[in-house]
């Protein structure tokens, strides 16, 4: 090994990037963790922030603060936009759209996935996804504004459109947000309006499959279906959302038949994911194989074939690995171990994912938990979800006070974080914003 310390560049501060950086803390390497938000987000609870149960501070933490105990790890704010495989450099764009270059000896790609609209990107204008803090705050604004606008309208189709909420995608995120919207309507806002009855709000859940939560055991999905229907969520299975506009959505049955239109002013999109543009760019520069969603094929040690100095972890890994937090965390720890073994002159070990189960929150007192042969639902599943899903998966420091704060907020059922802003038309555009043309 050269006397010069190895430079490790990690792209992305999610579960994989954070756990890799932590494990490399105080190792004989210089680590740079680059993230476009300079913060770690506990993404599995975004829907709780979007519906007012948790605040931004409950589900996010500054990466600089989180890694301050590790003197060999530095965090930088920026968006990776270019990669030179031969020079081992990454071009980074600052929020003011100027750029700088970082060099590396080892590159760890942990940039994650983004919402996919399956080639119909214009849907995004009317149907926000659920991937970032901005998404959560946007959904919170749309959700509570819809009730406020409905309060000012007379009975009729226009009011009905504001009181109808459509969710595309029947996976965990779709199920969780649909259940939460019905809870907002039936509990949180029940006695706060005069002209409307929030309980009249319709929540439509569209999915192309024959059941929700297809990754769970059939018995659990049946219980989830009954719980959702008891909450008042209307399930429309076996359909694809084929158009989204200002006034509603159009769905088409997979089996054929005429399209159906639903009037709604609030559409939320959780139907699919795809690799972020930089990940696709890196795959091209490395001539790596990818699947349709842009996930990158990797060697058994999570490196890119032919490029042992480049690793891929988390949702971006191709193959049969699930896109869940546990896979990202385990991948981050594994890659850190590989780097340490390289320093010690030891052979790398192959990555082996350990399935620690799946969980989905439906409503207060109702959740699903699947861990190996264990199947829990209802209130027992909800308690299991709380102690495992939060306490174990959290990417911030596992402090009892943090977990108890989250559990108290969720357990009470109150929503003290419902504030939203519509913006000020008189304020000029802010100078430090990400460009819409930041793709490589």
From TrEMBL:
EC number: 1.6.5.9
Pfam family, one: Pyr_redox_2
InterPro entries xrefs: FAD/NAD-bd_sf, FAD/NAD-binding_dom, NDH-2
Domain FAD/NAD(P)-binding stretches: 7-332
Catalysis: reaction(s): a quinone + NADH + H(+) = a quinol + NAD(+)
Entry keyword Cell membrane: no
SUPFAM superfamilies: FAD/NAD(P)-binding domain (SSF51905)
Keyword list, A-Z: FAD, Flavoprotein, NAD, Oxidoreductase
Any GO molecular function: NADH dehydrogenase (quinone) (non-electrogenic) activity
Signal sequence annotation: none
Record family assignment: Belongs to the NADH dehydrogenase family.
Protein name per the record: NADH:ubiquinone reductase (non-electrogenic)
């Amino acid at each position: 090994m050269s006397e010069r310390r190895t430079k490790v560049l990690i792209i992305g501060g999610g579960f994989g990037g954070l756990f890799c950086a932590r494990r490399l803390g105080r190792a004989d390497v210089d680590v740079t963790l680059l993230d476009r938000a300079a913060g770690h987000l506990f993404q599995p609870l975004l829907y709780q922030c979007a519906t007012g149960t948790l605040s931004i501070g409950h589900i996010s933490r500054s990466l600089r603060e989180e890694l301050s105990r590790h003197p060999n790890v530095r965090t930088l704010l920026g968006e990776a936009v270019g990669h030179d495989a031969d020079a081992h450099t990454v071009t980074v764009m600052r929020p003011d759209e100027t750029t700088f270059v970082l060099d590396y000896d080892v590159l760890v790609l942990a940039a994650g996935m983004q919402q996919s609209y399956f080639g119909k990107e214009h849907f995004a204008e009317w149907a926000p996804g659920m991937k970032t803090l901005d998404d959560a705050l946007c959904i919170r604004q749309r959700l509570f504004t819809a009730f406020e606008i409905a309060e000012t309208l007379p009975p009729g189709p226009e009011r009905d459109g504001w009181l109808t909420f459509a969710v595309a995608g029947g996976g965990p995120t779709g199920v969780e947000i649909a259940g939460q919207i019905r809870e907002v309507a039936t509990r949180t806002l029940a006695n706060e309006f005069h002209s409307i009855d929030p309980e009249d709000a319709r929540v439509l859940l569209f999915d192309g499959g024959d059941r929700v939560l297809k990754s769970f055991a059939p018995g659990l999905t049946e219980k989830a279906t009954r719980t959702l229907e008891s909450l008042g969520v209307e399930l429309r299975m076996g359909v694809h959302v084929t158009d989204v506009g200002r006034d509603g959505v159009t769905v088409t049955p997979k089996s054929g038949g005429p399209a159906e239109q639903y009037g709604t002013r609030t559409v939320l999109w959780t139907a699919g994911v795809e690799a972020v543009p930089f990940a696709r760019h890196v795959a091209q520069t490395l001539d790596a194989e990818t699947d349709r969603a842009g996930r990158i094929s990797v060697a058994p040690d999570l490196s890119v074939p032919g490029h042992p100095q480049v690793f891929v972890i988390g949702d971006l890994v191709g193959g049969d690995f699930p896109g869940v937090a546990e896979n990202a965390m385990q991948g981050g720890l594994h890659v850190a171990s590989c780097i340490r073994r390289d320093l010690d002159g030891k052979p790398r070990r192959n990555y082996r994912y350990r399935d620690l189960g799946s969980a989905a929150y439906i409503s207060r007192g109702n959740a699903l938990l699947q861990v190996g042969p264990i199947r829990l639902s209802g209130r027992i599943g909800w308690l299991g979800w709380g102690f495992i899903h939060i306490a174990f998966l959290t990417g911030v420091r596992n402090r009892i006070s943090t977990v108890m704060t989250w559990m108290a907020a969720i357990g009470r059922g109150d929503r003290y974080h419902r504030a939203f802003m519509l913006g000020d038309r008189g304020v000029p555009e802010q100078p430090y914003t990400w460009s819409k043309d930041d793709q490589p």
